[in-house]
Amino acid sequence: MEDFDEFSRKLRCRYLYNDGRIYKRHPFYINSGYKPLDSCPAIENYIFSTKIELSRMKINKHTRNISAEELSAIRNLKKNNNIIIRKADKNSTLCILDKDNYLREGLRQLHNIHYEEIVESNVKEVAETAFSIIRDLHNDNYIDNITFKYLKENINTTKVGKFYLLPKIHKLSQNILSEMERNETARRENLIPGRPIVSLCVSTIFLPGSKTRDSTLYQLSVQSTIFLPGSKTTR
Known about the structure:
Elements: H1 2-17, H2 41-56, H3 68-79, E1 83-87, E2 94-98, H4 99-110, H5 123-139, H6 145-153, E3 162-167, H7 174-182, H8 184-189, E4 194-199, H9 206-223
Antiparallel strand pairs: 1-2, 3-4
Helix pairs in contact: 5-6
């Protein structure tokens, strides 16, 4: 009922505070979450009646779209700690990799001049540096109060990025692939190259930082008018 409670809250707020005018909502406005106790008898009766009707609805049981054998196979694969399942690079092929080989390839790529091993995570220091930059931007009037509040409240100080590999099976010759399909020893001995991916989706300030960047670039693109040579067309 969480969705219905949120709907009821918005309905009450709309009745109490909407004056009929259309306001341009700030892209980084954070909802206050204010919950009015009530609005008017008509709306309260509607909310109550709707909740009663929803409680009377029969919810159908979830049905599987795969067989019991397929479900059991998926669960067994998920529990197998000796394999890694990844989507192949450049296509949608699903690859089941030997975990030891996968780790060997990852360590091989990490042990070079492009990466440096650290003793402990410095996520907290990165977050503090980011907040210092955000505060300076706010003090210098580059960002407004709402944007500053959004960035400040969404800084993540506990999570780091995730490194993983996408197997580049297209780099292997057809002869090697055929041999790996037939021979288990070949599957263990041939190291499949991987494309390194560093996912920052849950890392420090990624979400608020990317959202503010995209919004700023969009506003600049809308405000900028570029005339194409030899025509009156703008882009």
